[in-house]
């Protein structure tokens, strides 16, 4: 194997939080064959394996990782007609930009999301009214159980809100390539689905706008919330949204609604969005804010972003334990106020909330 290999390698620089201790060994793989060989070697020797793409969704413990960290740095963007294939290590924001330049709609509102293409199906990445599950046709992955490369069609990916089969079975699949079917709408975007985006664009929900305009508007909205990476801006030393939006049953929502009235007064309506039959999604950011954790909350080296209550940030000198202490404080505060337990979106390594 002609891969780069380092011993006792720092992992913090490979994450957007810039947190976490070293790995016993770090391998950087630039081809699918190198990825598979490194995974097989770890599996054959019983060595714990940590997969790292863009590092935008990882919280690594201060003690680091005892085992092999595999950085997937494969590259490749192939566009044929409206079909797009991305290597897992491809930078997602670059891929979105390429599709917009090519005049293809479907992922333009996912501009500015940090991380690699291979992570998008795992989380079913979504923002501003789009989710990758609506355009992914299939995922090429290495199956560690059968020790072979498999092609998983969309229908078998078990996509749901910020979830998938790949996330449900994290020890089984290693994403190698992701394939999408985009739309040629003569240079126009997909129908705008998100109210905030529609307002910013000055159009109604369901309207289409020029692709570049949609992408630039989303980038401006994300930047305003500290959700576009900038080494000089500590508000972006984060994993973006740290908590997922809670999805409640009708019964749970009724209890929650009563708690809101009790705490904030009659007539205060919490955010509520349909999430399937008998289920309602509410806003984690709203819950955090109304529980007293406002923008910039905290006095230590880990604080809530000054731009968005849903982002927990490293102000430059934080440890992972500092970050987790803040996260636990927020979880406990929201539960005490509204009876809802927030769930972290980033993957934790060697630690837990």
UniProtKB/TrEMBL annotation:
NADP found in the keyword field: yes
Pfam families listed in its UniProt record: FAD_binding_4, MurB_C
Gene Ontology terms, MF aspect: FAD binding; UDP-N-acetylmuramate dehydrogenase activity
Catalytic activity: UDP-N-acetyl-alpha-D-muramate + NADP(+) = UDP-N-acetyl-3-O-(1-carboxyvinyl)-alpha-D-glucosamine + NADPH + H(+)
Residue stretches in coiled coil: none
Enzyme Commission no: 1.3.1.98
Pathway(s) of this molecule: Cell wall biogenesis; peptidoglycan biosynthesis
Subcellular location: Cytoplasm
GO terms (BP aspect): cell division; cell wall organization; peptidoglycan biosynthetic process; regulation of cell shape
Domain FAD-binding PCMH-type: 19-185
Any Gene Ontology CC annotation: cytosol
InterPro entries assigned: FAD-bd_PCMH (IPR016166), FAD-bd_PCMH-like_sf (IPR036318), FAD-bd_PCMH_sub1 (IPR016167), FAD-bd_PCMH_sub2 (IPR016169), MurB (IPR003170), MurB_C (IPR011601), MurB_C_sf (IPR036635), Oxid_FAD_bind_N (IPR006094)
Cofactors (names): FAD
Keyword line: Cell cycle, Cell division, Cell shape, Cell wall biogenesis/degradation, Cytoplasm, FAD, Flavoprotein, NADP, Oxidoreductase, Peptidoglycan synthesis
Family matches, as PROSITE patterns: FAD_PCMH
Active-site residue list: 162, 241 (proton donor), 345
NCBIfam families linked to this entry: PRK13903.1 (NF010478)
Function: Cell wall formation.
Entry-linked HAMAP family: MurB
The name this protein goes by in its record: UDP-N-acetylenolpyruvoylglucosamine reductase
């Amino acid at each position: 194997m002609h891969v780069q290999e380092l011993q006792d390698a720092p992992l913090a620089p490979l994450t957007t939080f810039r947190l976490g201790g070293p790995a016993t060994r770090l391998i950087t793989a630039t081809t699918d064959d190198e990825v598979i060989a490194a995974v097989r070697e770890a599996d054959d020797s019983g060595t714990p394996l940590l997969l790292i793409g863009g590092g935008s969704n990882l919280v690594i413990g201060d003690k680091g990782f005892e085992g092999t960290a595999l950085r997937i740095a494969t590259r490749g963007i192939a566009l044929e007609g409206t079909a797009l294939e991305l290597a897992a290590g491809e930078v997602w924001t670059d891929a979105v930009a390429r599709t917009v330049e090519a005049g293809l709609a479907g992922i333009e509102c996912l501009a500015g999301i940090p991380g690699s293409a291979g992570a998008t199906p795992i989380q079913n990445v979504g923002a501003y009214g789009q989710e990758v599950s609506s355009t992914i046709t299939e995922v090429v992955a290495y199956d560690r159980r059968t020790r072979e490369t498999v092609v998983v069609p969309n229908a078998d990916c078990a996509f749901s809100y910020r979830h998938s089969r790949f996330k449900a079975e994290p020890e089984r699949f290693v994403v190698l390539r992701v394939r999408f079917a985009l739309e040629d709408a003569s240079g126009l975007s997909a129908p705008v689905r998100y109210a905030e985006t529609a307002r910013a664009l000055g159009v109604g929900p369901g309207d289409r706008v020029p692709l570049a305009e949609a992408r630039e508007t989303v980038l401006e909205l994300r930047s305003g919330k500290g959700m576009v990476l900038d080494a000089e801006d500590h508000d972006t030393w984060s994993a973006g949204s740290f908590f997922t939006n809670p999805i409640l049953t009708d019964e749970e929502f009724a209890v929650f609604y009563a708690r809101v009235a009790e705490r904030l007064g009659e007539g205060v309506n919490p955010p509520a969005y349909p999430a399937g039959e008998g289920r309602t999604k509410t806003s984690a950011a709203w819950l955090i804010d109304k529980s007293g954790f406002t923008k910039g909350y905290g006095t230590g080296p880990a604080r809530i972003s000054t731009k968005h209550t849903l982002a927990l940030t490293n102000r430059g000198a934080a440890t992972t334990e500092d970050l987790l202490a803040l996260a636990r404080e927020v979880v406990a505060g929201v539960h005490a106020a509204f009876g809802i337990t927030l769930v972290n979106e980033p993957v934790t390594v060697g630690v837990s909330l």
